[in-house]
Amino acid sequence: MKKFIKWIASGWMLILFFVGFFLFWEYSIPLFDIPRYILPSPSEIVLKGSADLDKLVYYTGVTALETVLGYIIALILGVGFGIAISFSSILRRTLYPFFVSIEMTPKIAFAPLFISWFGFGLMPKVIIVVLVCFFPIVLNAILAFNSLSNELTLFYQSTGASRLKTFFSIRLPAALPQCFVGFKYAAINATVGATIAEFIGSDKGLGFYISIVTGNMRPDLAFAGIFFLTVLGLTIFGFVTMMEKILIPWHISMKRINK
Amino acid sequence: MKNFIEVTELKKVFGNGEDEVHAFGPATININSGEFVSVLGPSGCGKSTLMLMVAGLLDSTSGKVEFENKVVSGPKTDIGIMFQDNTLVPWRTVRGNIELQLELRGLNLKDYQEKINNILKSVNLDDFADRFPNELSGGMQQRAAFCQAMIHDPKIILLDEPLGKLDAMTREKIRADFQKLWMVKKPTVIFVTHSIEEAVQLSNRVILITPRPGKIDREIKIDLPYPRDLQIKRSAKFTEYVNSIQEVFHKYGVI
């Protein structure tokens, strides 16, 4: 409770801003005479959206499954490749430049191809999410595992410890902060990947829902869909941030945020 | 009898071809067991390079290093090492960082708890055992790093400008701490520094290195009794040592 009061006390400006923002939105629609098929008011979005709640919740589940599945696969592959590339000079000269060059291509451009190859089901969406999330994770992991200070390297060498032991005692914990930069960036992009994949070809999910209702001139329902997508994105990002706090509470950037 | 550490015609060249940089040597040095030897020279003279080669942490281009008649061919493990940038990891407390040294060496932590408490007390860090490094001042961090380097009772301690980033007052205090611990345990110490006063105060012997490529200009035996406190530092003999070393570096245009 004390924490909650403290949180309100420190966040009141932000809360006030949001309240003001939605009030402005609500009352500027009659004020400027904006037609509802262009921009609906927040109250209308809530009203119409709640009538479609069952569908929205179900579709959120569908999109969540694609996003989370893709994200987890990207996490495993990204960290795995990241470690492999960091410790192998051959991979660093082959796979690493390859990954860097692919990072330049907009991965989402592959989406129509994947849909045509793998159909309308779950798989192509998961693959697109993996593709979108993999690169920030792997590139940050490579950076993370290569940036151990010279001093710490010399220190562990002077102890004669095995490579496995130094990996778990020093290299892995030292790499986590930079890894989380990639994890968080990927978490933000994960829902984008899933949504666009659904835009292109699907029969369920929030992306599908938004594209259908927009086509039916129902921006109120589109906004409801966007709201659920935002909640999904925030939940995933919040979970990753929470993991960061649990796994690396010692990290300087965390301390600064807490203060 | 041969010396404890024998460095023979040791030389280091980085890179090759046009990018070649002659960093150090060739130089020959002998060090006795339990001796406190300072390696003094201007920055970039290769003194850190020398220290790392002695520890087997850096390959030499030519020449050899021997410990008790055994040629060093890889990283030596019966050493404690300390740098200007400390080797404390931010995710462990002071105690945890000292334990890291023991864990990496596969030593039993339980056997060392008493020792950890004692060494922390000797450098006035006993109240900070459960603090994280970033909660400590720079001087306290270096003292914790010193405990980390000493806890396993290494025969050889390598100090690479460990006080380089500290303010003058803190340096003074930590020098006294180092000296106290060294007098009790008598490890062999190789102390790399560019502070003349520091070298004279702490060492049995000071090795003067020329600007790059670092070669040995001369060795000066410091014949002053330990512990070298403020009184000794004010003595004429101390000043004489400092002045004579300053003259050498003045000759090279370093100061």
Characterize the structure shown.
The complex is a heterodimer of chains A (259) and B (255). By secondary structure, chain A is mostly helical. In chain A, 84% of the residues lie in helices and 0% in strands. Chain A has one domain (51-258): MetI-like fold, CATH 1.10.3720. Chain A has eleven helices and no strands. In chain A, helix 3 (53-87) runs parallel beside helix 6 (122-146), helix 5 packs across helix 6 (122-146) and helix 8 (163-200) runs antiparallel to helix 10 (219-247). The two termini of chain A are 19 Å apart. With 255 residues, chain B is of the alpha/beta class. Chain B has a domain at 1-73 and 188-255: P-loop containing nucleotide triphosphate hydrolases (Rossmann fold, 3-Layer(aba) Sandwich), CATH 3.40.50.300. Chain B contains eight helices and ten strands. In chain B, the strands form two sheets. In chain B, strands 6-7-8-3-9-10 form a six-stranded mixed beta sheet, sandwiched between helices. In chain B, strands 2-1-4-5 form a four-stranded antiparallel beta sheet, with helices on one face. In chain B, helix 2 (94-104) runs parallel beside helix 4 (138-150) and helix 6 crosses helix 8. Chain B starts with a strand and ends with a helix. The relative contact order of chain B is 0.17. The mean pLDDT of chain B is 90. Chain A binds chain B through residues 149, 151-152, 154-161, 165-166, 169-170, 173-174, 248, 250-252, 255, and chain B through 52, 55, 57, 75-77, 79-81, 83, 85-87, 89-91, 100-101, 103-106, 132, 134.
Q: What is the count of β-strands of chain A?
A: 0
Radius of gyration of chain B: 18 Å
- CATH domain topology of chain A: MetI-like fold
* Oligomer description: heterodimer
Globular, elongated, flat, extended or rod-shaped: what is the shape of chain A? globular
